Amino acid sequence: MKINFVQFPLYDGIRKERLVASNITDAFGDWIYKNVAGLKAHLLAEKIFKSTAEVEIDEEEVDIIRRSTSMLPGLLADSLNDYLNKKEKEENHED
User: How far apart are CA 55 and CA 84, in angstroms?
Assistant: First the structure.
């Protein structure tokens, strides 16, 4: 799955009426680096932090992101979960 963390679609509020393209490379990469244990999480944090466009995320990295959302603020957690659900649905339709 490819994700662009430089222009990530973030909800603008609890109503989830609008998505705003936001650069979450620093904040989310740094958050994973500080809060999620393991080498794979460390490498994912660096991948996100250093990204300048879409990056390929494997299933294990998607799982790390999904497991981390329960510890994130609601706005980012909901945006990430909904985005991952949408991308997985799109990929399943392609198969």
Answer: 14
The span from the CA of 86 to the CA of 83, in Å, is: 5
- pTM for the whole structure: 0.89
Q: What is the pLDDT of residues 63-93, one digit of tens each?
A: 999 999 999 999 999 999 999 999 999 888 8
Listed by start position, the domains of the chain span 2-94
DSSP conformation letters of 21-35: EE--HHHHHHHHHHH
Least Cα distance to 48 among 6, 80, 7 occurs for 6
Spatial separation of the C-alpha atoms in residues 2 and 54, rounded to whole Å: 6
CA angle 40, 65, 62 (to 5 degrees): 75
Distance CA 72, CA 28 (A): 9
